[in-house]
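so i finally got all the pieces together for this one. its two components total, 900 residues if u count the protein bits. some of the lines might not be protein, just check the labels. i wanna see the whole assembly predicted at once instead of chain by chain like last time, that was a mess tbh
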Amino acid sequence: MGISPVLWQFLIKWLHASALFPAEASTIAPYADALYFFLLLMTLVGTVIVAILLVTFSIRYRAEKNPVATQIEGSTLLEATWTIIPLAIFLVVFVWGALLYFRIYNPPANAMNIYIVGKQWMWKAEHPGGQHEINALHVPMGRPVQLTMISQDVFHSFSIPDFRVKREVIPGRYTTVWFNATTPGTYHIFCTQYCGTLHSGMIGEVTVMTPADYEKWTQDSTSGMSLAQNGERIFASMGCNACHNGTAAARGPNLAGVYGSKLQLTDGSQILVDDAYLREAILSPSQHVTAGFAPIMPTYQGQISEEGLIDLVEYLKNLNSNYRVQQTLNTSQSNATAPDTAPGVKP
Amino acid sequence: MSTILSLPDQRTATLPKKNYLNNEHGILSWLLTGDHKRIAILYLISITFFFFIGGAFAGLIRLELLTPQPDLVASDTYNKFFTMHGIIMIFLFLVPSVPATLGNFLIPIMLGARDLAFPKINLLSWYLYIIGGTLTLTALVLGGVDTGWTFTTPLSTHYLNTHVVTAATAIFIAGFSSIFTGLNFIVTIHRMRAPGMSWFRMPLFVWANYAASLLMVLGTPVLAIAIVLVALERTIGIGIFDPTKGGDPLLFQHLFWFYSHPAVYIMILPGMGVISEVISTFSRKRIFGYTAVAFSSVAIAVFGFFVWAHHMFIMGVSNYSALVFSLLTMLVAVPSAIKTFNWSATLYKGSLTFETPMLYAFGFIGLFTIGGLTGVFLGSLGMDIHLTETYFIVAHFHFVMVGGMLMAFLAGIHFWWPKMTGRMYPESLSKLAAVVTFIGFILTFMPQFILGYLGMPRRYHAYPPEFQVLNVLSTAGATVLGVGYMLPMLYLAWSLKYGAIAGDNPWQATGLEWQITSPPPTENFHEIPIVDYEAYDYERLEKMKKHEVTTVG
């Protein structure tokens, strides 16, 4: 009586293809795994101690052997012991876990930034160089990569298990996560926060490439227009330059070099200009009025997509002078003042 | 195997002529009853009904996950399965399970009272439960709801076209049922203890339910608020959670988990109370360190209110609040560790017998230890990042809720079955069921820890093929587990008519409930007892028995 060879082959293949432990593909993974093994050990020891107590007492003090129980009130010393030892272990776990948390969520200063927009049910990756990907992410090996993420609808969560990183992707708010991939290959991206019908279809692959391959990939797959260039286009087409042109009479504050500076607001508070602030200031300007300016800017809520906002943010991040702003403005104004050669026909 | 079970001579034994079951007849005598014992039975029937509906959804989920492809049902249907499974199991089974059935039945008797403080409110709370349950079924029949039991905004408020408001109303109403039960217990425990029944003479079951009641009364209103806000945002579009209207979606997470984390203690604490009673009775010993066990219940209830944000570590809460909540989470783990060691130490120098309730209690201690310690993984900030929202968390809370709470519930049901019905369940069949449940449980949920560390997200309809082997194991386990739960249902029903007559005190236990007839008379005590002894005083019981024998002989 033997097992059918076909079935056998199938079983072998099936078991072989199955996974028991995730790959360690980022610099963080070994740190996370070390804590994991410590916690597993703690669980194992704890469970074994309890099991030994239950089994030993069950054998030694079963009614056949020990017909009359000895009443014991308790023991302060023993109870103190099994309060303090678990407490001490848990505190070690707390400190260890906190250190790991800050390691995972505090990006190094030299990290390259990629934007991620989550929507039902896909991941869009926006590289500053103008590469756009859907449900895919290409990153170089051995270089810290920071993801600045936002959702355009519901809560999502961006997870790469083989890197041991994950972060909630929230509507209306940038969140970040970083990693430094160590091994070339492709790894799963999962959305781990339930987000509706095709939640389990909101998956993708992160491809880790050697620096040379990555260089080649960035050149081959650029859309030809960087995010900042896109941002400049939006800046002009939405008419932002009408007020934010850096001239002395401008109705809006000068935006050149504003990123990273400390800004004084009319309500007296001081605020650091970062991605999140810029996004907020575009969407609800009335709550972010720079000191010395009138609250005249209309809201752009619902008029610019999250990708458009990212483009604008990326543009403002890199805006060092107002030269091009004024150039663009002059061109559009001279267009407007010049009489139309062919009325009714828009250029 | 020796046993402490001592049944009366079956040839002459009869059920007491007048008891709470046959005192009045007719369906109205049940539906309009103020008797806490009858209300407990009403609850028992209704939660069993919902348990099997919730269980059926669990079965369907596991069946779908047998293969990596989404091939059994459509994605929307799958999402409705796990939503209904969660809503039913949490709000309609786990929260009321021990308090509303065993607690309702036993707390007045254990305190030496004739009923709860507010019998009519007690009945009202059952009706609210039934209305909540009916609304849930309505939402189900009309086409279901697919928010997940967590009702995460803005998904639940703006993006789903299912019966969210109906389900939310159901939970809102069921919540009041739980508030009323808690209120009733608190007042009863404060005001209606028999003469001499001081706080530290109360059985630990009462302490545990007292702690759970505090959580119900203080926590559930916050859930009600969160639910109402979701309903308002969905229907008339007020901007509480919607970021485009200046709302904050994280606010919902705060409000929801402010209830829903304490809710896990609402579910587990009464179960711990059951375990204390069972361990003590079958080791013939006072619980080791009674005071520590009693206070650890209260400590869990107090700390339980200050750990909710550990559900939000990856949601961009501030670093400082993450630190504080992680630290508090570590602290709340300590009282559970104390309890586990105290139960184990109770066995030391006891005189142990291994009847069914004891087997379930052992199952509880083992599984709860694993469930509790894996909670420490999730409380640890850096580890939580990788593990949260995966099958690890699913395995963790099923170890606590199913491995812990359901085992405790079954331990309690078997332990007090003779008291509630006057008849014994079949012993060997029930031992088999306990073992089957344990094996099925381990097989179902152990693989999910591994899946979780691999990164398989929860609530996934389809998954990568390399996860299949572990999923097949889990589904196989669920089948065994299903058998393990069907068995008690069948033999307990059988025992109602054919079980051996149990007599007043089949387990030779010390609680006041065992000093009255089984089933108890409607008024519980003809004369209110005067308590001049500690809880779990087995030596006194021994003496009384000897005295009885000498006077009769």
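Chain B touches chain A through 99 residues (CB under 8 Å).
The radius of gyration of chain B is 23 Å.
anyway lmk what u think
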